[in-house]
Write a structure and sequence with these properties.
The complex is a heterodimer of chains A (about 110) and B (about 120). Chain A is mainly beta. Helices cover about 0% and strands about 60% of the residues of chain A. Helix content of chain B is about 0%, strand content about 50%. Chain B has strands at about 5, 10-15, 20-25, 30-40, 40-50, 55, 65, 75-80, 85-95, 105, 110-115. In chain B, strands 2, 4, 5, 6, 9, 10 and 11 form a 7-stranded mixed beta sheet that branches. Chain B starts with a strand and ends with a strand. Classes of the chains: A mainly beta (about 110), B mainly beta (about 120). The interface of A and B includes residues 45, 49, 93, 96 and 99 of A.
Chain lengths: ~110, ~120
């Protein structure tokens, strides 16, 4: 059974700091991995999707990497801002887009 | 730009009552999903559909039924609600060209369901 773990569970940083969120999965036979953002009381917003054949994806200040063989992905946020405060979730695709989610990292960026 | 719309947004039920949650998407997506999100458990897949008239079980399907009579709608039913089904329910949809080539899933804002 696929298990997805996110470390740390919570993170508090001052504005402007660069930070890394970690995601690991137990079964490397995935099709792709997706990073989401969830604001309190809201649904999930897709940030980045990395196909299994790719090593990384970038969008603005966000960069996600994927090492399928070691079962790891990282989300790098550059020059963090208070507006980045949210819960970040990673999810792996088991087929037919059925996702297995981690429990998330709650990020707080203070001004 | 409606995207994925869930109704209702909040609901309180008594144990044993039944109800249906509605999910509607206007993006012509083939795939639709129902998840539940519980503290400390993360999001878990209940049921999903790969096209009109199809449904399949996810990780936690017991106590729920689904129907996909129209491509744009995916219904989640609770026949006899139990306190263990108190949760936040999310619907999502996506377009997928084939099994491996995934497109991002688009989520609704959730339905907060309490069962007393």
């Amino acid at each position: 059974k696929q298990e997805v773990t996110q470390i740390p569970a919570a993170l508090s940083v001052p504005e402007g700091e660069n930070l890394v969120l970690n995601c690991s999965f137990t079964d490397s036979a995935i099709y792709n991995l997706q990073w989401f953002r969830q604001d309190p009381g809201k649904g999930l917003t897709s940030l980045l999707l990395i196909q299994s054949s790719q090593r990384e994806q970038t969008s603005g200040r966000l960069n996600a990497s994927l090492d399928k063989s070691s079962g790891r992905s990282t989300l790098y946020i550059a020059a963090s801002q208070p507006g980045d405060s949210a819960t970040y979730l990673c999810a792996v695709n088991r087929g037919y887009s059925t996702l297995t989610f981690g429990k998330g990292t709650m990020l707080l960026v203070s001004p | 730009n409606a995207g994925v719309t869930q109704t209702p947004k909040f609901r309180v039920l008594k144990t044993g009552q039944s109800m249906t949650l509605l999910c509607a998407q206007d993006m012509n997506h083939e795939y639709m999903y129902w998840y539940r999100q519980d503290p400390g458990m993360g999001l878990r897949l209940i049921h999903y559909s790969v096209g009109e008239g199809t449904t399949a079980k996810g990780e936690v399907p017991d106590g729920y039924n689904v129907s996909r009579l129209k491509k744009q709608n995916f219904l989640l039913g609770l026949e006899s609600a139990a306190p263990s089904q108190t949760s936040v329910y999310f619907c999502a949809s996506s377009y997928q060209a084939n099994r491996e080539q995934q497109r991002p899933q688009h989520f609704g804002d959730g339905t907060r369901l309490s069962i007393l």
